[in-house]
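User: Please fill in residues for this 305-position structure.
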């Protein structure tokens, strides 16, 4: 059977999480129009007759600001290393940006053995395929003379948001995979820790309502999960950076937090096949994005401390 570990990378909001969910066939990574939605590396596992693909959905590369932003960029770069295939996702509905060129530069300099460039949002107009190919040609020309073994990425178009829109990506990845033994059991879609998965679901529901108001200053920590006869009682803290943000998250007559709680509760129940009840508390933690203890609780530091 064919097996590969695939690093899914690209700038923030290029559609990486949508692509991972489409390839896996179920939701393993949260999706939002807000940038920097994915904050941890999520493993999605594709099992089918051809073999197994282990997909690492990474935080999007962006202009880093503060401790958290630098952590997310480091996680994205680290997750791209040591994979069998590097899959770079571009939002081709817009012309290439500096972060897109940055990933191309990385491919040209580091020369991974196998690289797939995915031009996402192929249903949009304009579709800037030529702009990305020209950007790569320019970067490649500047680096090609610096040694042997220069990479020749494969290219594929994709509509990650549409049913069947990622089939070409899956075919390309399997064609690049090598023969090997499966890395995970066939019946799991992800090995992402459930506390982090639940925290992501809760944060997604807030982001859907808050949009650009305070997305990057909102964190979630799942404090406990009590289990009894198919019922889960989940307690979580919603972390904000300033006292003025607390009423925004709660909403008028507690409407926003209630809506987020109900929607998250429903999705958690569906994800884990249980009857979930969710208890949310909003907590002000000034400067939490630079607090290593809180960042560790949210899973952003891994084994650093």
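Assistant: Residues filled in for all 305 positions:
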């Amino acid at each position: 059977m064919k097996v590969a570990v695939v690093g899914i990378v690209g700038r923030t909001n290029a559609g990486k999480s949508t692509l991972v969910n489409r390839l896996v066939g179920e939701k393993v990574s949260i999706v939002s129009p807000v940038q920097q939605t994915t904050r941890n590396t999520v493993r999605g596992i594709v099992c089918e007759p051809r073999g197994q693909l282990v997909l690492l959905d990474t935080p999007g590369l962006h202009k880093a600001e503060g401790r958290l932003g630098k952590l997310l960029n480091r996680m994205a770069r680290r997750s791209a290393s040591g994979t069998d295939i590097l899959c770079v996702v571009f939002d081709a509905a817009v012309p290439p940006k500096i972060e897109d060129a940055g990933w191309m530069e990385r491919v040209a300099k580091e020369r991974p053995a196998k690289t797939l460039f995915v031009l996402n949002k192929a249903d949009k107009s304009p579709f800037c395929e030529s702009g990305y190919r020209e950007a790569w040609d320019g970067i490649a020309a500047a680096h090609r003379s610096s040694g042997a073994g220069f990479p020749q990425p494969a290219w594929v178009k994709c509509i990650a948001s549409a049913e069947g829109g990622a089939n070409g990506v899956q075919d390309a990845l399997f064609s690049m995979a090598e023969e090997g033994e499966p890395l995970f059991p066939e019946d799991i879609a992800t090995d992402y820790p459930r506390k982090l998965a639940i925290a992501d679901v809760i944060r997604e529901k807030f982001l859907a309502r808050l949009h650009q108001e305070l997305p990057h200053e909102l964190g979630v920590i799942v404090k406990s999960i009590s289990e009894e006869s198919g019922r889960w009682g989940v307690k979580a803290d919603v972390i904000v950076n300033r006292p003025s943000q607390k009423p925004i998250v709660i909403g008028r007559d507690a409407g926003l937090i209630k809506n987020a709680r109900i929607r998250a509760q429903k999705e958690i129940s569906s994800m884990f096949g249980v009857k979930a009840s969710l208890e949310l508390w909003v907590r002000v933690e000034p400067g939490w994005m630079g607090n290593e203890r809180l960042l560790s609780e949210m899973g952003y530091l891994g084994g650093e401390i």
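For context: DSSP finds nine helices and ten strands in the chain.
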